Amino acid sequence: MTSFKAILLLTILTVLGSLTPANPIQRLNNRATNLELALRETKKNTERWHFALVLLGANTQAEGHAFEHLIGDEKDLEKGKCMVFETRDVDRDESKMPIKATIIPSKGETTDTILSEAVLNVARGVPGAMRDQVTSGDFNNCFDFATETARRLGVAGYISGPDAKKFKDYHDTHSAAVKAKMDAGTRRACARDITGSACALSKSSSTLSTSQSAPTGTKSRTSPKKSTPIVHRHSEDGIS
Q: Low complexity compositional bias: what residue ranges (predicted)?
């Protein structure tokens, strides 16, 4: 009887073992499907048209964590900056997210928290736009920054090649229209000492880098024209 119980226990353990991936990286990849990257698009077809990347976790049904380049405040303008890196929590509205991709723990990250920080570190490495660049009219905007970040995440293995291409294809399709709507407002914002939340495309925005090297854009912040003010970046209804 004892022998029968031992055999039964061994059989159960063997079956359970076959259901659990032996490779720890495989287990991480299975778990990582709970963490996604999305492109968030708001204020479409207006001067405040805005793009951000958002981290979506399985346990955050109501919110996502956005990371983006926004027009800075007076202190940034004084330092010659215009477009600067920011993070914030945003609503998880699927209608505002035309692209989503699974995030992969390519460096063996063991938790979603560690994986999220790794993704943000890649994003922080994408330079913003300096004030003189924006006022000259040759600068990268929030759409450019989001697309370049997605490209770098693809190079680093945090999203798949096909998923990275989805971000670039969307940019190639819509970048000219975005630039036409937002360019003038962003230049006005960066030329004055007022904060704002608009962003705009560079002249060469449709030819984003496809190599591993960083883009030439730098950081800078902005100010809007009083007759058509651009809402402050921290305002609740600015860049929803």
A: 202-214
The full DSSP string for 5-66 is HHHHHHHHHHHHHHHS-SSHHHHHHHHHTTEEEEEEEESTTSTT-EEEEEEEETT-SSEEEE
Can you state the percent helix, strand and coil of the chain, rounding each to 5?
40, 20, 40
DSSP conformational letter for 211: S
- Across 53-82, b (16+ Cβ under 10 Å) vs e yields bbbbbeeeeeebbbbbbbbbbeebbeeebb
CA distance 38 to 26: 23
Task: Report whether 201 contacts 141 (CB < 8 A).
Answer: yes
For the stretch 40-70, pLDDT in tens is 999 999 999 999 999 998 765 668 999 999 9
pTM of the model: 0.70
